[in-house]
Each structure stands twice: as structure tokens, then as C-alpha cells.
Amino acid sequence: MQELQITAVKTVLNEEIQKKIDLKTKPLGSLGTLEKIAFKICQIQETLTPQLNKPAILVCAGDHGITQEKVSPFPQEVTFQMVMNFLGGGAAINVFCRQHNIKLLVADTGVNFDFEPSPHLLDLKVRKGTRNFAVEPAMSIEECKQAMQNGAKVIEKLHAEGSNIVGFGEMGIGNTTSATALLCKYAGYSAQKASGAGTGLDSEGIKHKASVIEKALKLHADINDPLSILATFGGYEIATICGAILKAAELKMLILSDGFIATSALIAAHAINPNVTDYCLFAHESNEQGHKLMLEHLKAEPILHLGMRLGEGTGSAVALPILQSAVNFMNEMSSFEDAGVSNV
């Protein structure tokens, strides 16, 4: 992964942005969170007339060696089966992307399956699944860097095609265990506090999952730098998304952060370069146990609270129309002066 130049967002237009928002034909602050969203988008794009151009969601799929520890009620083959569902257009993310005219990209970053070549599937496979991080690092540093570079290249192409907003989704049986371990390591939470149901574990299953993570954290206790943490506990889909997030921030794109797994990639990116969150809006708060902790760690305010915990980028897809409403009021709503309305 090449060294990236990610700068903090500029604040030079802050006063003008706020003035434009305040002078719309409404009481001060009466559009609530929409005003905060509009301000953020204007700040990122360094303009008073923001645009959401060619929105895209990249869904990355990868398998996990940690499933050998029986941390998921679903078998590993569900990963490739769900990728086939994405390609067939039948998953929730397909439905929402069609509804909101979002370009959907599906990538095999490390699925334990040989897919037939398809123009609808990005072949970013590094390896057929990670190793079991309960006994050894999930990835080598080189493999992790390759996955991150793969994600960066996808974003470079999207940006060159005119996209200025991107979200991320994922698929990978066992990846909530990986994401939980990353949360614990980056943010200092215990496995017991951070572990949740994932794809449907019962209380005993959650306890087992936490014990597996705790064992792994002790095994790799001496791993402390951000990249090594990602390589040790992450997945190929998480590393790919992490690299994509870093590149999107460098290109000053608006990043729409999704749920638990996608946010674990963001936490990794934030550990590598804290400026990345300057370019993020947070679509929703997942119902997965650790996502609230992630949002607290990043000091983030989610836009939606819908009790979702599906993944796939679905929260980002559902939130996009709200961002569009924020942009539209900024560009199309009259000011008091334009409308001839008294502003007392």
C-alpha cells in the first residue's frame, strides 16, 4: 500500500456554509440533522453547492479461518452462495441499490471458492480465506497490503469515472468475530463486552465466541501497530475496504460508513490515519453488539436507527436519500431574501 496523503478537511468555508444554511426560509436549526449533513458535505467538497455524483457501493466478500473455532451457526459455503445471490440480483443490497440508483460493485477478495469469470464480479482474491487467528495471524503483512491496494485501485477507477460518494458492504461467514477482535485491539474493549450474536448465535454461542477472541488477543498480545493488527485479526474483505477508505479520503470523496464489519475497516483506517473520519458520514447504528462501541470510539453520530444488522452495505444504501435531501435543500431552498420573507 503506497503512502497516502490524507489531509484534514478545510474549514475556510465554515462560516459561509453555516450562513447559507441559517438564511434558508426556516427557523434556525429546524431541519435538524439534515443541516449537519449538508454542512459536512459542503465542507468535504469545499463548496456551497454540493453534489452527490454517481454514488457507488463496493461489497467485498471473503472467508475466515476463525470459523474453524465454531464461532458462527452458518457454514462457510454461505459466503460464496451469497456472492452468487449478489450476482443474481436477489440480495437486499441489490434491491436498495436498484431503488436508489446506486452503482453496485461486488468483489471476491478471499472467498474459499473458484468462481467462473464474470463481468459482474471483481476478482480481487488474495487467498482462499484467511488463516485461523486463534492459532496464527489471519494474513501476512504482504497479503494485507495487497488487499488494501486492491481496494484503493477500485476507488481510483470509480473516482476517475466521476463518483464522489462511496459506501462499503461485506459478506463473510465469521467476519463478526474478526471485526470484534479488531474493535477490542484498536479500542481496548474486552471480548465479553464487544461480542454479539453475529449471524444468530444464542447466549452460549456468544460466550464461546468471546472466549475464542479472548484467547486470540492473549496469543497476539505483542501486536500493536495498526497494520499488524489488521493483518493479524482482519479479513481480506476488511483489509480491502480499509484500503478503499484510505484512498477515498485521499481523493476527498464522501465516505458513507455502514455497519459493524465495514466500520471495523474504518477503525483500522482511522488508526492508520485519523484524518479519514473527516470524510465520513455514518449511515446507521447497527443492532450488532459492538457497533455502538465502534461509533463511540470514533465519536460518530449515526443518521439512522432502524435495528438493522444485515451488513452488505444496506444501511448506507437506505441512508443515501437522506443525504440527497440535505444536498437538495442546500441547493434549491430559497433564502429569506430570495423569497421576500421577513427574517426576524
Task: Provide key terms for this protein.
alpha/beta; seven-stranded parallel sheet; Rossmann fold; 344 residues; 14 helices
Please state the second-level CATH architecture: 3-Layer(aba) Sandwich
**Tell me, what is the CATH class?**
Alpha Beta
Percent range for β-strand residues: 5-15%
Integer count of domains = 1
Element-level helix/strand string: HHEHHEEHEHHHHHEHEHEHH
- The total count of strands amounts to 7
Rounded mean pLDDT is: 96
Radius of gyration, whole Å: 20 Å
Looking at the structure, the CATH topology is Rossmann fold
Tell me the structural class: alpha/beta
Low-confidence stretches: none
**Spatial ordering of strands, largest sheet:** 3-2-1-4-5-6-7
| Quaternary form | single chain
CATH superfamily (homologous) name: Nicotinate-nucleotide-dimethylbenzimidazole phosphoribosyltransferase (CobT), large domain
The best one-word shape is globular
Helix fraction bin: 40-55%
How would a textbook summarize the main sheet?
A: 7 strands, parallel
Overview of this protein structure:
The protein has helices at residues 14-22, 33-45, 78-88, 92-100, 141-160, 175-187, 191-194, 203-219, 226-233, 236-250, 260-272, 291-297, 314-332, 336-339, and strands at 56-62, 103-110, 121-123, 165-171, 254-257, 280-284, 302-304. By secondary structure, the protein is an alpha/beta fold. It has one domain: Nicotinate-nucleotide-dimethylbenzimidazole phosphoribosyltransferase (CobT), large domain (Rossmann fold, 3-Layer(aba) Sandwich). A 7-stranded parallel beta sheet has the order 3-2-1-4-5-6-7, with helices on both faces. It is globular, with a radius of gyration of 20 Å. The protein starts with 13 loop residues before the first helix and ends in a 5-residue tail after the last helix.
